[in-house]
Amino acid sequence: MAAKLPLAAVGVGRIGLYHARHIQEVGRARGDCELVAVVDPHQDTARRVARQLQEGQATIIHAFTGVEELAAAGMAAGAVIASRTRDHYDDARTLIDAGLRVLLEKPLTHSLQSAREFVAYLDADAHRKEALMLAFMRRFDEPLQELKNLLDQGFIGTPFKIVSVLEDPVPPPVGYSSPGLLKDMAVHNVDEAIWLTGAMPEMVSGLGAQLYNHRITTVQEDLDDAFLQMWFPGNLLGQVQVSRNHVAGYRNETWVYGEDGLIHLGAFQADPLRVELEAYKRGGGVEKRHFQMRDYGAEVPMFIERFGPAYRAELDHFVAQCQRRAPFAVDQNDGLRAMAVVEAGTRALSTREGGVEVKSVLPEIP
Fold it and tell me: What pLDDT band is residue 325 in, cutting at 50, 70 and 90?
């Protein structure tokens, strides 16, 4: 068996805590990795989480308040970074320069300019080029993987429209630092569309508003409701709808329309742990499946209820590729592509242009 890969969790707030727990779970399942440190700028949080996760683990979990301390300690070979978006660039670069490989939460950085600089820096060196995995967990979600399998098999023929919807029922938690609704939410949907279709949008237009959510939270955000329309090469259209205003509960759905049928995944329903997939062919063929998501027991964030197994699966891939010293399935260039589309959408919303070409914001699309 390979030596255990020592891992750290950076930023152990709402999502970071689950990343840390998943490191422990994957370590127990695989036997070739372990959690050795947690990092959080709030010292009391770092120490509390380290104590909380120490139970049942023999290896000491150290608590640090910054990635510089973690790098200087020399105890970790990899890290999962879930710090504030504005800290992504510095945190990831510090650890990569120290020789670690990192799994970085979305978005890649806080701005398209810094993302371009970061990708150029990573791609300029052989080690750095393969040091970062971007946490687009939807690519590791079993229901979405089955949808992609049906598409790749040609079940509904050539797709001509894909629709991805993500709507939250509550505001972000108090103290949350949002880079903007599109960067924070729509980046997942955009990457999903790029991954499912294997194509890059050429033009984006959109609409946005502040409807309700901004009145019930102290978190500052540019919009609480937005719609993007994306034109792909050929006759393929993409639509993304994101919102903080689905007050009845968490909504996450995808439709793909093809020349020979339709696939629909997910729905807003009473049981959030049951995800249904329906595929209908022109003339009668039908595929139906349901996927039971993991019950984490205690009350958890809504996105963990839906995507908890996907978060763990992406971490399993991260560990496996680290052990093999192999490239990751999703990297900084995937993050840059999604950010470019989101930036084009943001410009379209702010300028009210009919459409913004993606190449106008990122001429060198990777």
Answer: very high
Q: Check if the beta carbon of residue 305 is closer than 8 Å to that of residue 272.
A: yes
Stretch 82-89: mean pLDDT: 95
Identify whether the C-beta of residue 252 lies closer than 8 Å to the C-beta of residue 246: no
Report the alpha-carbon distance of residue 33 to residue 137 in Å, rounded. 20
Identify the burial level of 330 via C-beta atoms within 10 angstroms of its C-beta, where 0-12 means exposed, 13-18 middle and 19 or more buried.
Answer: buried
Which phi and psi (to 5°) does residue 360 adopt? -75, -25
The answer to whether 242 touches 221, Cβ cutoff 8 Å, is no
Question: CA torsion, points 139, 340, 266, 255, in degrees to nearest 10?
Answer: -110
Q: What does the alpha-carbon distance between residue 126 and residue 316 come to, in Å, rounded to a whole number? A: 23
Rounded mean pLDDT of the chain? 95
Nearest-10 crossing angle of helices 16-30, 302-324: 50
Rounded CA separation 341/366 (Å): 13
Residue with tokens 């996105």: 303
171-185 confidence digits (pLDDT tens): 888 878 888 899 999
Q: What is the mean pLDDT of residues 283-295?
A: 92
Neighbours of 49 (CB within 10 A): 23
Sign of CA dihedral 128, 181, 142, 204: negative
pTM: 0.96
pLDDT at 270: 79
Q: Are 213 and 236 in contact (CB under 8 A)?
A: no
